[in-house]
Design a protein that fits this description.
The chain has two helices and no strands. By secondary structure, it is an all-alpha fold.
């Protein structure tokens, strides 16, 4: 009986991983579309592909930096319980 429960749990984890993957993929695709539209990049020109690459890496780098700052702020917080 316990093995069936573990199997169902593993199926649910796999399902949530797949959903998270698709959500992240869609957000990245929307981000790239916003980069293209905000910078008026016509992708039939080679120099615009280079610009898209540079802007995309800049965007991803900024996301990484923001996650670092957020994590650092969370670590610095006082997480001890207080008397209410």
């Amino acid at each position: 009986m316990q093995f069936i429960w573990i199997g169902q749990l593993l199926q649910q984890i796999a399902l949530h991983k797949m959903r998270l993957f698709w959500i992240i993929l869609i957000l990245f695709a929307l981000g790239f579309l916003l980069i293209i539209s905000n910078n008026n990049l016509a992708l039939y020109k080679a120099e615009n592909w280079v610009a898209l690459k540079e802007l995309s890496f800049s965007w991803l780098n900024q996301i990484y930096k923001n996650i670092q700052v957020l994590t650092g702020k969370a670590v610095e917080m006082n997480w001890t319980l207080r008397n209410l």
